UniProtKB/TrEMBL annotation:
Organism: Mesorhizobium calcicola
Membrane topology according to the record: Multi-pass membrane protein
Pfam families: MFS_3
InterPro entries: MFS_trans_sf, TM_effector
UniProt name for this protein: MFS transporter
Superkingdom: Bacteria
Keywords: Cell membrane, Membrane, Transmembrane, Transmembrane helix, Transport
PANTHER family linked: INTEGRAL MEMBRANE EFFLUX PROTEIN-RELATED, STAPHYLOFERRIN A TRANSPORTER
Length: 550
């Protein structure tokens, strides 16, 4: 029995670190760890500098808001850009913005020309850069690695960041206490330049599309529509937003816990952050083992409860040791929740839209974090720090209970890669912008297959609508009741081509299941038509209809 357990543990360990065998992923991942260390050093320095020059608890808590609010506002645009342009170049652009922010802040602090609002402004600029880097990096994981390695890669990204979190804040506390915030800002700038060097050194590309690039407004609309029609993604987004809103109190109020409740300085604050990072690191390393033992929904629920227990401990303890242990538990819950939700969105998204779904998820969860940072800061300033943490703990328990309404399903290993599409031969010379296009698919369904057919057509409507179908309807012939017609529209001929190029193997399985219910010598017939208003000037492409069979 023990040999079996050891073999399973070895297999899990191998699966966890397998993505590091890819040289491109390894180089970018290592660069991300160095830059994460710099980001954490800068976060400690900014938070402590704000706590020393401002007497407002809200201003201290707004440090978290300043870096997360831009992600909320810009991520959806960044995701559309990541799906339409080179994700590598988008990452480079984002890190250039972060480096520029750090260089300018370092210079201003060195000259002694700064105030609380200026600090928040440059933190906000760094957040703007992060809004572009995060969706592009997470979406690139599926471009660099095989699909089965994606969960391990996402876990490694989280583990790496939280490994830096376990040493970065403590190191930041030592640097700030010994040399001052200016040194921490200078070191952070160097780490960002290291990440830019890693991106410049490595080359990777997404899967090319045979179709021209989508307009930005269309890309954003299509990403929002796909997300709205995907139950798994909506559940992950809702849970992430609520978790961010309630759990961010741990990090947003931690400088106040260190300063007011424990009576410590930057080293105490760094120690508390190190405890949080250590818990996150341990949970990340054991994430595969946990997923084999418990469902993702159960893990998410337990993680919310762990964060609630951390908040309660911080609200009442005057001991640095007890607070650090509590933060270890909170860090574990933090990484288990975010890793699980991130992978759920990744595996539920085809490659053509993954940047947009991840950006929408990131935007709304970051919006929850930004709102929560402000909310708990206001509560702490107007009432008390202990009350803010107690209310946060109660809210986290309510978030744990939302699993009954918005469950996180087990990750499915379904094929989300597009299958490609052969453009049908047409009798007319259509342009890309010609339209609207009307698609009709005719079925012959006997009465015995009717219930199964209607069930599958409900799924068919969701599948077709989320890849671009508009005004989807299902009609039954009144004179020949076994004849059914599925009808939908696309605004242009190019939109019709995009719709078919987006269909995955999992989507095509539904076609086969519908074919099993169809009777007749010929398969279901697809007819294409271009819609024209009555009285319009006659042109060459104004046909009544034409069709092809498939």
């Amino acid at each position: 029995m023990s040999r079996v357990v050891r073999a399973d543990a070895a297999a899990v360990s191998s699966a966890t670190f397998a993505p590091l065998e890819n040289p491109t992923f390894r180089a970018i991942w290592l660069g991300a760890q160095v830059s994460s260390l710099g980001w954490l050093l800068q976060t400690v320095a900014v938070s402590w500098l704000m706590a020393t020059i401002s007497t407002s608890d809200v201003m201290v808590a707004l440090v978290q808001t300043s870096t997360t609010l831009p992600v909320f506002l810009l991520s959806i645009f960044a995701g559309a850009i990541a799906d339409n342009f080179s994700r590598r170049k988008v990452m480079a652009l984002g890190w250039c913005v972060i480096a520029l922010s750090s260089i300018t802040l370092t210079a201003l602090v060195g000259l002694g020309f700064y105030n609380p609002w200026m600090i928040l402004a440059f933190s906000c600029l760094a957040g703007c850069g992060a809004a572009f880097t995060d969706p592009a990096w997470h979406a690139s994981v599926g471009d660099i690695l095989r699909k089965r390695e994606v969960p391990a890669a996402v876990t490694l990204i989280s583990v790496g960041y939280n490994a830096m979190r376990s040493i970065g804040p403590a190191l930041g506390g030592v640097v700030v206490a010994s040399f001052g915030p200016l040194t921490a800002f200078a070191i952070a700038t160097l780490t960002y330049l290291t990440m830019l060097w890693a991106i410049g050194r490595c080359k990777w590309s997404g899967r090319p599309s045979p179709l021209p690039r989508e307009p930005m407004t269309t890309a954003i609309h299509d990403g929002a529509r796909f997300t709205a029609l995907s139950g798994e993604i909506k559940a992950a987004i809702a849970r992430g937003t609520l978790f961010g809103l309630t759990s961010i109190s741990i990090l947003a109020l931690l400088p106040l816990v260190a300063r007011d409740q424990l009576g410590g300085g930057p080293i105490a604050y760094g120690t508390l952050m190190a405890g949080f990072g250590a818990g996150a690191l341990c949970a990340g390393i054991s994430n595969n083992v946990l997923r084999r033992s418990l469902s993702q929904e159960r893990l998410t629920t337990l993680a919310c409860i762990a964060c609630a227990a951390c908040c309660l401990a911080l609200a009442f303890t005057p001991s640095l040791l007890v607070a650090t242990i509590a933060l270890t538990l909170g860090g574990a819950g933090w990484v288990v929740t975010w890793t699980g939700l991130d992978v759920s969105v990744q595996l539920s998204s085809p490659r053509w839209v993954v940047g947009r779904t991840l950006s929408i998820y990131s935007a709304l969860s970051s919006g929850g974090i930004a709102a929560g940072s402000w909310l708990w800061g206001v509560l702490a300033e107007n009432y008390s720090l202990s009350l803010a943490l107690e209310c946060s703990a109660g809210a986290l328990l309510l978030v744990a209970a939302t699993g009954f309404l918005l469950p996180i399903h087990q990750w499915k290993d379904s094929d989300q890669d597009p299958l490609g599409f052969e453009t049908p031969e047409l009798a007319l010379d259509l342009k890309s912008r010609s339209g609207p296009i009307v698609v009709k698919i005719e079925y012959s369904i006997p009465e015995t297959n009717l219930e199964a057919f209607l069930d599958r057509m409900r799924e068919r409507r969701r599948v077709q609508s989320r890849v671009g179908a508009r005004h989807w309807t299902l009609q039954r012939d009144l004179q020949e009741p076994q004849h059914w017609t599925e009808t939908f529209r696309t605004p242009t001929w190019m939109d019709y081509l995009r719709l078919n190029h987006r269909l995955t193997a999992a989507d095509k399985e539904l076609d086969q299941r519908l074919l099993e219910l169809h009777v007749g010598k010929l398969p279901p017939r697809t007819k294409l038509a271009i819609e024209r208003p009555t009285g319009a000037a006659r042109k060459r492409d104004q046909s009544t209809s034409f069709f092809f069979r498939r």
